[in-house]
Design a protein that fits this description.
globular, alpha/beta, four-stranded mixed sheet
Length: about 200
């Protein structure tokens, strides 16, 4: 990154009667992640997102895990989306769209994103559950939808094939990282310009 370009970073804190979440997102990072959500598998997936997107993430969350993981997963996704939105600002100069196709052993995942300012998600997975320390299958899709809504981005995520649920989800988060990295990338020919014919995103 050129020395004259500031690192893009954003943060968000969210405290409810169910959770207390704090997130920091550095878009122009090196892939470092410090995550403590109380859900081991979610921490592992956020580390994949950071590593393969070259983002620096800090995530701290305490939630009512004695109930289940729903509130914690949802609020972490909301906070992450808002932190990314804050980091990107008016989104001038970015490539805006990105996609990735990622294999992991038996699994193959595809993610496409558009940082065009409209939150929308289509998620097609066949994930049933990941056991102790993991996530219920529907929570993976719920995380992605909540993240897309609050990050003001369009997200299409598909698991194209696979037998092992761990591999499916990990391939999905790696693909999300790579697609977001491509979409967030600064495009020199678009320096200072909003990537939309509308003039605003």
């Amino acid at each position: 990154m050129s020395a004259d370009l500031e690192k893009r970073q954003g943060s968000h804190s969210r405290k409810t009667q169910e959770t207390d979440v704090s997130v920091s997102w550095v878009v122009d990072g090196v892939g470092e992640c410090r995550s403590d959500t109380g859900i081991g598998f979610l921490d592992h997936m956020l580390a994949q997102l950071a590593k393969h997107g070259l983002f620096d993430l800090e995530v701290a969350a305490r939630g009512d895990l004695q109930v289940d993981e729903h509130h914690t997963v949802e609020d972490v996704a909301i906070a992450l989306g808002r932190a990314l939105d804050a980091a990107l600002g008016d989104r001038r100069g970015i490539s805006r769209m990105g996609d990735a196709l990622v294999p992991m052993d038996d699994a193959l995942a595809r993610v496409a994103v558009d940082l065009g300012g409209r939150g929308f998600a289509v998620v097609e997975t066949d994930i049933h559950g990941l056991g102790p320390g993991g996530l219920r299958g529907e929570m993976v899709a719920h995380f992605l939808r909540s993240f897309a809504s609050e990050g003001r981005l369009t997200l299409h995520a598909d698991v194209l094939r696979g037998d092992n649920d761990h591999h499916k989800v990990e391939a999905l988060f790696k693909a999300l990282g790579r697609a977001l990295e491509a979409a967030c990338r600064r495009e020199p020919r678009r320096a200072g310009l909003v990537p939309s014919t509308k003039g605003i995103v």
